[in-house]
Structure formats: structure tokens, C-alpha cells
Amino acid sequence: MFELAHPEILLLALPVIAAALMLRRRRVDTAALRHPHLALLADTGIGLRERLCLVLPWLRLVALLLLVIALARPRDVHNLREIEGEGIDIVVALDISGSMRALDFQPDNRLAVAKSIIHDFIMGRTQDRIGLVVFASRAFTQCPLTLDRSILTGFLDEVEIGLIEDGTAIGLGLATAVNRLRHSEAVSRTVILLTDGSNNIPTLEPETAAELARTLGVRVYTVGVGKHGKVPFPDDRRLMGRRTRMVEMPLDEDLLREIARVTDGEYFRAVDAEALARIFATIDELETSRYRTTVTTWYEERMAWFVVPALLLLLLDVLFGAVWLRRIP
Q: Where would I find the H helices in the chain?
């Protein structure tokens, strides 16, 4: 396909044409030779030199018009595309409450391992928009829906415990994630809610947030993290060295199952890092984006097609004017 990168530059052709017409009208034919018997010259006709004098101004006009077209950057556009499929909008709602510091997910705490697995999940969903919501006692959007993987993973890297006052507002976290999908036009809209506790902030009940998700057609996958029973937890009361104490952290699995059921999603329980990685791999398979894209566009500049003829015409004009059509004062 042929196009002009800057078609507005063609407007410069109008003053060029107007100036050429005005100069043509102002030309006055004055006698170059006085002769008493003009009848002797009546049948001589117009010679080649006179014809060139008439043609050359139009060649200059053509040369200028060609240069104007060249400035508009003519180019051939080549498209190689094979687009099919339906993108998915996904929001990950990540619990960053203090309990995510538990050390049962080796080689690091729950939050660090979850961030690593979410990072891999994000990098594998190249055709889907993904957003990130974090919650503790409150919830906020860490990154809105985006296709830019570098920006999203950058925001994910900045997530840490302590960004929000401690607590576990599952209802607020879910509602904030669902709200990010309110105006989405994607065929499939999904929330992945990851938490290790139970809702202890009564600002918004999780059941109400689940009903909101169901009303908007948002599917919610709930992921409960943490081993059963007591787990090692950093002991901040110790002044020397890294010490841990065994703490039992209850997980409200019944609530997470109900949220998944209401929204036509699924509930998963991860008791270690490997299990969490398998869960995200399963969600990745469940949420297929059916995309087959090969979108490539490249351009071939065709400016030379117009610049070269224009320069040749101008060169001819200069040569004829300096040699054959040179005027003697």
C-alpha cells in the first residue's frame, strides 16, 4: 500500500502553482530584433530554441511539485498480520498484610515467593491486559490494566509489606479489583485473589464484593496460601540474629470457596511454593486468550522516486540556461 507520511505538506503545492501562473501572466513579449521587412520572417516558424524557452518554465514547475511530494515522504506500507482471538483482562489482588511474612514458603517468605510466581505469570500472558491491586487494612490499585509488561513488573517489584496499615480487608481488595474491570470490554474478565488470612476489616463484606463481581460478569479465582497448623514467623522481639517463632495463622477457606462459587471461579490451596506455581499454571490454562497474532508493519521510503527526477529537471534547466539558451545583454 502506498501512502504519504505527511500528506499535509502537499498544501505547499498550491502557492507553487499560483506563483507559476502569476509569472506566466506577467510575461511580456518584447522585440529582440528590429527589422524593416517582417514579411521576410513570416514563414520561418518557431525554432527549437524558442520551443525550449516555452517548455522550460513548465519543467521548473514540475520539478518544484516533485520536490513538494518528496517532502511529504511517500512510502510503501507492508503489513504482515494474522490476528485472531479474544483478549482477557485480569486483575491480581494480592494480600500484603503482615502475615505474608511467614517463612513456610521457602526459600523466602510468602509474599516474596508469591511475587516471583506472579511475575512469571505476567510475562507469560503477552496478549492480555493485567492489573495489580494490593490490600491489607485498605486496598489500592498498584497498577491499572496494561499491556506493558515492564511497567507492570516494575510496580510488582515495589510491593512490600508495610505499604498499608496491617489487616486483611478481603472484601475491599476484591471490590477494588472488580472495580478496575467495571469498564472493561474484554470477552473474559478475571480476578485472581491471593490471601493467607481471613477478613478482619468490616468496611466491606467479601460476600458483597463477590455479588458485585457476579453482577458484572467477573470470574474470581481465590488462592489461599499457607501450610496447615503452626508455621515459622520472624520474631521481631529478638534483638540479636534472625529468630523465628511458630505461629498458627487461620485461613478462612470457607469464605474463599464461597467467593469462587458465586463468581463461577475456582478455589485453590497452596501449602508451598511449588503448589502455588502449579496453581498459577492451572489458572493460566483455564484462562486461554485464543490469540494468534503476527502483526508486523514496515515501510519502504520512496522519496528518491521524486527527488531524483526533480533534481535532473533542475539540472537541465541550469545547463540550458548557461549554454544553449544563454542570453547576451
A: 13-26, 48-71, 110-124, 149-157, 170-180, 206-216, 253-262, 273-286, 304-322
Query: Averaged over 68-83, what is the pLDDT?
Result: 75
Q: Are strands 88-95 and 129-135 parallel, antiparallel or unpaired?
A: parallel
Q: What is the DSSP letter of 308?
A: H
Q: Is 78 exposed, middle or buried (0-12, 13-18, 19+ CB in 10 A)?
A: exposed
3-state secondary structure of 319: helix
pTM: 0.62
Q: Is the pLDDT of residue 91 over 60?
A: yes
Q: Which residue has the cell 480476578?
A: 191
In 3D space, the residue among 92, 94, 157, 93 whose CA is nearest the CA of residue 130 turns out to be: 92
CATH class of domain segment(s) 88-286: alpha beta
CA dist 263 and 218 (Å) reads 7
Burial class (CB in 10 A: 0-12, 13-18, 19+), 275: middle
* Alpha-carbon gap, residue 35 to 75, rounded angstroms: 57
Q: Say which residue, 27 or 167, is predicted with more confidence.
A: 167
- pLDDT tens digits, 216-259: 999 999 999 999 889 998 887 655 556 888 888 889 999 999 99
Reading the block at residue 256, the C-alpha cell is 474463599
Asked if the bond preceding 107 is cis, omega within 30° of 0, the reply is yes
* CATH 3.40.50.410 domain locations along the chain: 88-286
